[in-house]
Design a protein that fits this description.
The complex is a heterodimer of chains A (about 260) and B (about 375).
Chain A lengths: L3 E4 L2 E3 L6 E3 L1 H13 L3 E6 L4 H8 L5 E5 L7 H9 L4 E5 L14 H9 L3 E11 L2 E7 L5 E6 L3 E5 L11 H6 L1 E5 L17 E4 L15 H9 L7 E3 L4 H14 L6
Helix pairs in contact in A: 3-4
Chain B lengths: L20 E2 L5 E2 L12 H5 L5 E2 L7 E8 L7 H13 L4 E8 L6 H4 L3 E5 L9 H15 L3 E5 L2 H14 L3 E5 L1 E2 L3 E7 L2 E6 L3 E4 L10 E2 L3 E4 L11 E7 L13 E5 L6 H11 L2 E4 L1 H5 L20 E5 L5 H6 L5 E6 L6 H4 L2 E4 L2 H18 L1
Classes of the chains: A alpha/beta (about 260), B alpha/beta (about 375).
Chain lengths: ~260, ~375
């Protein structure tokens, strides 16, 4: 049994609606395969064979599919399979490619249930003895390096762009193991997902605005006024004083660090 | 009497400056025949009216909005979350803004009734567990009904961690928020319409930050962020991004050149000295002075830098589209009436080469002194 498990899933293609490989999950699998050759891919729920082969083409030898019913608690289904796995990786889900209304919550829920730390926004992984040196993406191009001891859950950043290899031989040779749901166990529905109704995504989204009661005069003014009036304009002075003004502006707003 | 009655036989005229009272709703009302109120001249009406407070209290419940301040300022998404909380809150609910890091914004204008700022927060340290524990302390102290976060970067992750740790109901990526319902994408071209959750992570553009009221804006130091050991994780430090290799979309400080910049070695020397990424307008790129990847605007890149210094750029609409998310825009242009002057926070009317030389000299002096 391998040390690394990568959680993968199919996503619906934005245009055709067909299930396809998720780029974020593929990036997570590629990062894991860069550390070790024996990586287990794991999913819960429906995963067509074609998508599974697409994942296996990255080079992993095994993909396990835990079958579960519609609307079942995926975290609870995955949990028993992850208890003895030191490293769990997952991709960052973007807003458009999830189905439960809880974007990217799964790694956090799993980590809480397994009592492990979560490291988000992972860009790169290097093995260092038993630990991993993990590079984390921060805003504005900054990077943080962390030494992470097993066990841990890593969420790979959407900005991670490892080279995704595609090997037909691996896609054909990889094993897909489907584990059916035990009939004796009652299908537990997710307690965290509250009831709701589905509406078409094309229905216009209404902006939350405060109710205002304006006088007619104010409304007329609003119609003729331009909203942006611009800031300070510096006309007089020699280039040196103007440059000083620019530098003062940058320093008062702490935009530069000298 | 306020109305001027003309003698019989002449036209009856209405005094345009009859006394009027301003109602609590902010409307100007003329009571016919009454002499009470103020005779407001037309230009006094133009002056901005001080906004009334949303609620004067006393408060029995609370809505908590959590955000991290960067350089003492809240992000746009965090401002929208505060506005959403203020719009939804009934009169007996206090909008509390909990900020990690110092916050110099006018929080009353944002709609917050109380600001709890953890000024000692070190942004560069890896401490998610400590932040979650800090929020759990706030939960014990204030028992908020709802928690609102912006679903971006640090705030979004903190919201997820906190909701999972505290076992609260969570709605991520809320795209529409109503009085008692919210909408989240469900995939496959459909959305879920659900009741409010205890923790809501709001996508950008959910609420309008234009508020007809203000909050009370009480400032209060928050309890310090606790020191919690991150189990199994050792922080090896943060490397700041190198502006030269950085994608423009990620850059924090951008120096952009337009048609007015001809001295390219000087321009690049300045960019190197201040540590800025280099961008350009379409004209400069078409001219061959910059690479296509450096073009900012509708056909180029859309950037979200904290500081954008535009040299010799007039600011065509397509270019302004590309910099709409920039926080501070400084324009250097010979034409004070160029369109970029309306967008810029500071416009300097000067030849770009002369200003670049002076600025480069100043920056070098400052660096030597430091």
């Amino acid at each position: 049994m391998s040390d690394i498990t990568v959680l993968v899933a199919a996503r619906h293609h934005a245009i055709s609606g067909r299930p396809v490989r998720s780029r974020a999950d593929a990036a997570a699998a590629a990062l894991a395969l860069g550390v070790s050759g024996t990586v287990r891919l794991l999913t819960a729920g429906p995963l067509p064979d074609a998508v599974a082969r697409d994942y296996l083409a990255l080079g992993a030898p095994l993909l396990e599919v835990l079958e579960c019913g519609e609307g079942a608690d995926i975290a609870a289904r995955l949990l028993p399979a992850l208890r003895d796995v030191p490293w769990v990786l997952a991709g960052t889900r973007s807003e458009s490619e999830h189905g439960t209304g809880s974007t990217g919550i799964l790694p956090y829920a799993l980590a809480a249930a397994l009592q492990r730390p979560v490291v988000a926004d992972v860009l790169g992984i290097q093995a260092e003895g038993s630990a991993w040196i993990v590079t984390q993406a921060l805003p504005k191009g900054a990077r943080r390096r962390l030494r992470v001891q097993a066990p841990a859950v890593l969420v790979v950043s959407a900005a991670a762009s490892p080279t995704l290899r595609h090997s037909l031989a691996d896609a054909m040779a990889g094993r897909i193991v489907r584990k059916p749901l035990q009939a004796t166990k009652p299908a537990s529905t997710s307690p965290s997902a509250p009831a709701g109704q589905r509406v078409a995504g094309s229905k216009r989204r209404k902006l939350l605005e405060a109710r205002t009661q304006q006088s007619g005069h104010a409304r007329m003014l609003g119609a003729i006024e331009s909203p942006s009036t611009g800031g300070a304009v510096l006309q007089a002075g020699d280039p040196h004083t103007k440059a000083q003004a620019v530098l003062d502006y940058l320093r008062t707003h702490s935009l530069v660090h000298f | 009497m306020s109305t001027a009655y003309a003698p019989p036989g002449q036209l009856r005229r209405v005094d345009p400056r009859r006394p009027a009272i301003i109602t609590p709703a902010g409307l100007r009302r003329i009571v016919l025949g009454s002499s009470e109120g103020e005779r407001i001249s037309a230009n006094r009406l133009d002056a901005p009216v001080a906004k009334a407070a949303r609620s004067a209290g006393p408060f029995h419940r609370a809505t908590m909005v959590v955000a991290r301040a960067e350089r003492g300022a809240l992000s746009d998404a965090a401002r929208q979350a505060v506005a959403a909380a203020a719009i939804l809150a009934p009169a007996d609910t206090e909008v509390i803004l909990a900020v990690l890091g110092p916050c110099h914004d006018d929080v009353a204008a944002l709609g917050a009734d109380r600001l709890l700022a953890a000024e000692d927060f070190e942004a560069n340290r890896y401490q998610p567990a400590a932040c979650v524990q800090w929020l759990q302390g706030l939960q014990a102290a204030w028992a908020p009904q709802h928690w609102l976060f912006a679903d971006t970067g640090f705030d979004g992750q903190l919201g997820r961690r906190f909701a999972v740790q505290a076992g609260l109901g969570l709605a991520c990526g809320v795209v529409e928020l109503g009085a008692d319902s919210l909408r989240v994408p469900a995939g496959a071209g459909q959305d879920w319409l659900r009741p409010h959750a205890q923790v809501m992570l709001l996508a950008k553009g959910v609420a309008s930050t234009k508020l007809p009221f203000v909050g009370l804006g009480v400032r209060e130091p928050a309890q310090p962020v606790p020191t919690v050991s991150e189990r199994g994780i050792e922080d090896l430090g943060v490397q700041p991004g190198d502006p030269k290799t950085l994608a423009l979309e990620e850059a924090d400080f951008i120096l952009a050149a337009g048609n007015g910049v001809t001295d390219l070695p000087l321009f690049h020397a300045l960019a190197l000295e201040v540590g800025a990424a280099v961008g350009a307008s379409r004209v400069a790129v078409d001219d061959g002075r910059f690479a296509r990847a450096q073009q900012i605007g509708a056909t180029g890149k859309t950037v979200s830098a904290s500081a954008y210094l535009a040299l010799g750029i007039s600011g065509a609409v397509q270019h302004l589209q590309g910099i709409k998310d920039c926080r501070h825009v400084i324009a250097v242009n010979l034409d004070a009436s160029a369109p970029i002057a309306r967008r810029a926070d500071l416009t300097v009317v000067e030849d770009s080469a002369a200003l670049m030389r002076a600025l480069l000299e100043l920056v070098r002096q400052h660096k030597e002194a430091a």
